[in-house]
Give the backbone structure.
Amino acid sequence: MHIMTLNIPFDNSYARLPERFFARQTATAVAAPTLIAFNHALAADLGIDATAMSDTEAATLFSGNALPDGAAPLAQAYAGHQFGGWSPQLGDGRALLLGEVVTANTTRHDIQLKGSGRTPFSRNGDGRAWLGPALREYLMSEAMHAMGVPTTRALAAVRTGENVQRETALPGAVLTRTASSHIRVGTFQFFAARSDRDGLRTLTDYAIARHYPDAQTPADLLDQVMQRQVALVAKWMGLGFIHGVMNTDNVSVAGETIDYGPCAMMDSYHPDTVFSAIDQQGRYAYSNQPKLAHWNIAQFATALVPLMPDETTAINQFTAILNRFPDLYAAANLETFSAKLGLAKSDPELIDGLLALMAQDGADFTNTFAALAADTARDQFSDRAAFDAWHARWQAHDPDTALMEKTNPQIIPRLHQIEALIQAAVADNDAPFHDMLAAVTQPFRANAAYAQPPSTSEMVARTFCGT
Ligand code: AMP
Ligand code: MG
């Protein structure tokens, strides 16, 4: 079926790489696709003309039931460390890269279907996604973008009209997402682990040309990927975002947040917060994220070693780069929290003092900073004397409230509300999804309906992977 009302100006550079980088694969048709959401603003930004496209046509295309003209669908190969353990063969087991578009400002973006059926990398999986994770990723990624965090974006969500079997039968969905690319640390590891030096070289040249055009060497690439990872994780920390599965196959070398699985934003502040049910050791707990990002970048360095003239040179150069991670992160974190407190001159003890008071009370992370911007936070603290002492020291900095207001969101995608909208969507009511999407994409605007932390009965203790 040809759909002439959608024009995606594809230019598929990944599909021109050697065949062993991927498996060409088409989507498996679904029974009765219906459109949940299409992101017209994002489409327009990407130069995709969808103005004449009907919802039925959108559902047909973004379920994978028809291929847009110019697409060259494929499943990308990659490997990765999952919770520290090595998996030599992962790859897109339920996703297909349709192709890439190049926008007017010359940035290239991938367009990928997620949940579109089995691929040669599916192992025991069904290649499908259920509605819950698809809506969660749509909402989370759009919220993160609105809060100024580099991230993949959501272009479309479609119900398949079929059930997928998990612990119970659940409605299936396909999410279409866009990304600066889907090249992961695990993509490099895939070639390094196979001693495929040519593949590794080709991938490195490709990643440099696409993302870091001024990098001259693998060491430059490592350094620049590390810097973007530092900046990214500092943003996560400043918002209370917990990714949940920071495996090397979920680390984009472009420095975007990718693969929203059991992620969540923290309500009540505690540094040890962890949501993911599979993360029983708390490996990816909130406060561990910088350390694990460093570990992931060290795995990236290891994968790049074969490209260096000899191992000693590689170890010397790469160790010098990796050793800068803690200081770079400390500086980025200080900058993040200084902005949150409107400080022109940083004051690490002031920041730590506030976080200690917040942890003691389990204060709501988002609402505390929002209240500080309005200078109405005092009521949120049980130890008023300690807060007053802290407040006097803070006020001596003459905090910049305009900076605080544009740094501290009022509205974040809260887990209990996401869970509620998923339940509604399972019962065929998408209104809560659309309402919440509208709210979380205006994060700096007050909105009483979405600002409340969960009550004790609403609290969600655990999240589950998007499978
Ligand atoms: P993720 O946890 O989403 O990062 O996925 C880790 C690996 O498992 C990737 O290789 C995925 O493609 C694969 N995977 C996850 N869910 C499925 C599924 N339902 N069917 C096939 N492969 C899957
Ligand atoms: Mg993944």
Notes: Residues 361 and 381 are 7 Å apart (CA to CA).
